[in-house]
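Moderator note: this is an archived Q&A kept for reference. The question asked for a predicted structure of one protein chain; the sequence and the answer are reproduced below.
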Amino acid sequence: MTATDPAMTALAHSWSALSLLHGRIESSVERALQTRHRLSAREYALLDVLSRQHDGEGGHLQMRQVAESVVLSQSATTRLVTRLEDRGLLARYLCPTDRRGIYTNVSDDGLRLLEEARPTHNTALREALDQAAAEPVLAPLVHAVEQLQGGDRPA
C-alpha cells in the first residue's frame, strides 16, 4: 500500500472522523466539568482511575500505569497529581513493601468531588454522543462506542 492508495485514503478519513468525535466529546465534557466543578476532563479521569484502586494484590497503580490510563506522559501525570494534591483531592504515600514505590490515593474530598462530577460527566458525554450520532460520518463511530460496553440505547 502506498500513501495515495484508496484504502490508505479511506483509513485516513476514518481516523479523521474518530479524531473529530474524540475532540468534540472531550471539549463538551471539559466545558461541563470546568463550569460546574472547576475540574478538567484530565483531572476527572485521573480521580476516576485512582478511585478504582483497591488494597488487594495488584490493587494500587504505579505512576506509569496511571499515566497510561489517562493517556499522558509520566511527567505530565506527575504535574497533574501535584495539582490535585495541592487542592487536597489526592494524597501520595510510600509503598509499605517497596520504599521506592510511591502510590497515590484519592482523598475523601476528592471522592466527594468525583461523585458530584460523575453525573455532569456522564450527561455531557451522552449529549455529545447524541449530537455526533446525528452526523452521518460520525454515527457509525457512536454506535461502535455504545456497543463496546453493551451501552446500546433502547429505541
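Archived answer notes: The chain is about 65% helix and 5% strand.
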